[in-house]
Amino acid sequence: MTGPAQMWYLRLELNTGAPPWRSFVRLVQQRFGPPMTDSPLGALKLLQRTTTVDEYCEQFMSLACRDAELSETQQIHLFTTGLRNPLQIDVALRRPATLNEAISLARAYKQRLLLPEIQPPWPNQSSAYRLPTNAASAATGASSAPALVGGDSASSKAALPGGIAAGRRRLNPTEMAQRRAADLCYNCDEKFVYGHKCKKLFILEVAPEEDEPAEEQEPEAQLEDAAISLHALTGIRATTYHTMKIWVEVGSKRLTALLDSSSTHNFIDLDVAEELHLPSKQRATMRVTVGNGDHVACSTVYTDVRLLVGCTRFVVDCYAMPIDGYDLVLGVGFLGALGPILWDFGEQTLCF
């Protein structure tokens, strides 16, 4: 014996001598055992898994070994109840016959939750969408056919009320496994339960600023008075509107852009624009109306942004605004400069 136990036993020998074994066991339990008011069965009933399965098993066994009157079936029920879902349902469906079998199943199912899911590969070059290049009004580069990568069809998005589909940021297998292990939603930082709905998914609409009068003599102020409707901000895409995802290059950076026929202007994510160090100008303030009633001011525009789509170059102006899910939103301001176009939304192809 060492530490406090050694000092206690030395005092016991000095006072009463070496005690008989049964008396020694009783004295050890009185000194180092749990308090008399401790209830192992009550603690087992209230025990819930809050960390790893292995730590939960150690806590459960330390309490179960102190109550010899519990049957094997009762121990299995108490252990399974404290696992919490989804492990609780997984283990209960297997109907383990012993506590050791229940522990083994819980560890195996937890290991399965940590495995990454196999993600489908991106479309290869043969399935990429190509555009012919006879747009003289907007193209300033070579005339070879640019290759645009599409494939974000509306059917691949989770439908939301009102026919709105959410274009969420793609998670890699490691991130998905971490969120499953922590019982978190894939699209927000809240706990996932049955019937969960992400609070941050909303539609943004841009309306002209009503509080500030427009300057009649400045053409830019007159442009700001036009109503703008966005359906792609914060990664949300509506199935009732026509959109297509493409890849564009700005400088040496490859960006994800959304062709959106319901947006009258072009928009760029604020962080992306600052990272690229694009030249900006201040124009008449516009008010972005969020679906929950909030408003966000938008007054910065990045001019002469040079886009490379395939082998074709375009020069556009983009308003700066936080965008979740895409780096760019190219609206009618971009599509109108292409001239006559043939857009097949089913096949996700665009010819101009």
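Next protein, fold it too.
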Amino acid sequence: MCKRLMKSRFHREIRDGFRPFFKEKKSLTPGKVRLQWSTHGYQVILVADAHSTTDNGVLTAEQIVAHHNRTLNVLENPDHYIQVLPSEEIRFGSRRI
């Protein structure tokens, strides 16, 4: 079985397994950029100072994170959005992350 098919099947199983949980949720705060969540209609909050990457030979990790924070924060869609916030502004109930 090719890696692509295995990866696709794996992601489908993960997605389907979480579907009942996500059905009740209106927003997601992933620690990793997952644009796929926004395409399923969820409001996504990216924690600006809690995601990372590595240098890619063209940009440094800091430049990539800054680019993602700036670019994703201005994407617009009439049904959902991706919001970028620093960790001190994000609360779950009465707790900060």
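About the second fold: The two ends are 41 Å apart (CA to CA).
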